[in-house]
Amino acid sequence: GCDKQFFNASVQYSNMDLLLDYINKHSDEFGVTVQYATVGDYFQAVYSRNLTWEIRDSQDFLPYSTEPFQAWTGFYTSRSTLKGIARRASSLLYAGESFFTQYVRKHPASSICKCGALKQLQSLRWAVSEVQHHDGITGTESPKVKDMYVNNLMYGMFNVKKLMASIIFDMNNAKKNGEVYSSIYSKDSAIADVDQYVVVYNPLAWNITTFVMVSVSHLAMSVYDELGHPVPAQVQSSAESHSTYDLYILVAISGLSYRKYNVKPLNGKQSAFIGRSVKYKRKDRTRADQQSQQLLPVVNNCYQVLFDQNTNLMHSITERETNQTVQLTQEFLEYHVNGDVMKGPISDNYLFAPNASAVPVSKAVGLELVSGNLVTEIRQYFYSNVTSQDYLYAVYTRMYTVPEGYDGKLLCHRIEQEYSVGPLELNREAVLRTSTNLNTKQLLYTDSNGYQIQKRPFKAYVNNTVARNYYPMVQTAYIEDDTTRLMLLAERAHGVSSQGNGQVEVMLHRRLWNNLQWDLNYNLTLNDSSVVRPVIWLILGTKAVTNILYRTSGLALEHRPVVMFGALSGDKPKLPGQLQQNSVHSSLVTVPPNLHLQTLSLPGWRYSSNHAEHVHSIRMGKQKQGDADFSRVLLRIRHLYEVGEDPVLSQPVMVNLKSLLKGLGSVMVVEERSLTGTWDVNTLKRWKWKTAQYPSKGFFNSIDTSENCIVTVHPKEIRTFFVYFQGQ
User: Is residue 662 one of the residues assigned to a domain?
Assistant: First the structure.
């Protein structure tokens, strides 16, 4: 509790002073004395007791319950739209940071004001940090506070898109009247008939091959790269709009680089493949003829997915390399919940309290298959019955085929699903349940904090068993048997559970109202009538294969390429062969496949490397807000794998920071910092803690100080550095 109570700290302290004085004056009577303490003081006191500690075997404490019927597992999904925007903003910030850092390092005499540009970045840094509040991204705020978060995020995103667009224009020396407008994953920017280009930035420090989708106004399109060569692309009718088409462009981009693609209405020769649509009759699931099963196959190089034409539902997936088939079907269900405190436990922003098991929502399913040489999209529409006018839910499942000469491993191995959910009826909680014939013994795995996988065995309770077996899926969840694993990767947080053997269900949306006075006072009733469109990638395969795939795939989902649109108005359209060459550059910074470049940014503050000195000058009022230090870069490198996860990828990695960063300039000094960047690592004295297993040794991480800028990154380690480049 006590949220925001310290807004006026002096009131708090003058009240607590009275309590402290009273207790300390009567310490003989109470047997205690009290003092104000920092976290450091507290741990020092605990440490000096020299106790022996048990190890909790890396398990967290979730889920929390405050009463038998009060499982705090609703907030894992509350305000799904906000959760999606927060993650998208965070991803754009990540891209903007590295883009700006490269620009400043390589174009010191640029026309863009660096301080102004940093302010644009800072507006998004601020918004992304702000929404991490425990009543922010959790969805446990009132609607007007949620609107504030969204406005701040959208404003910051707008600023960073504007900054990235102006950097591209500056680097291409375009005429100042070159119009630019940019869009990140948005589907509302149709490309008109004029000659336009799509700029695509890869924010990851590896080469990627993937599809970007843009809306276009014509079916007949050609796509060219900077050199005027045709680029594989596919255009098809849009599921969402009758006036536009979806154009999928296959992009191959090296790390931290961008490419320009010229999109033209067809001039003579066909370039983009056309996706052809076949619509199948709506099927009544309740009357499905089990005798005569007709299966419709959809195939790429990695999977064969079968759909049952009696029900229009998914039937099975075969992983083609091992020829393992998993029976797999998906359906939407809703938990009905109570909103009247007089009638029993309620669901709200925080709590999930279902009345009973989830109820299937749809008796009839429509199916449309759009197939082309590169992309196959299966569109399923879920209706309450055969005669319903409008569908309640939709699933768009996409499978990709990559032509020869492209690295299609990651693309081929994911089955991408996008859902359309809502508006829900009141006091309904919507889940997508995937049921398989894997003998999982109801054991679920989820990521804690997006970082470490946790085992989640199903537990039977006297009360509220359904809700108390829900866990947060920050990005990853999976189920498995002895040989095969089904992995789910999400682009926003959800609640996830395994309510039956071989099952995994993801809560996608909630719409609630209740009359609990406390909720009404704060307008915390979650009457959320929005439509949400979350995305989940399915990966199926052996444990060894999925172990390798899901780390890189998870990052590829979180950091999808940034797409911007540009039109050079006022100029006569350039022929493809005359486009500037300088935007095609080889990868500037590339890390090995088991590492992730977690941060490459220019801190916005002048920060003394000596923390004690820095704090002292703040206390003395000497800390002036100076300009940022543009010759210092904050760098973080993370090892993606745990010990023993993979024979090769789980090994420690040696990195030469000088050669890693040579594309940005000549590295003069590298200073290793604590995780937050606050402390010089050499000033840290790590404590050893005694445990029952290691009575003397305990935990102790020795830091290898980086000689000659060569560092070793160990499994699951994150290392942080200040890097100083030769003066500009």
Answer: yes
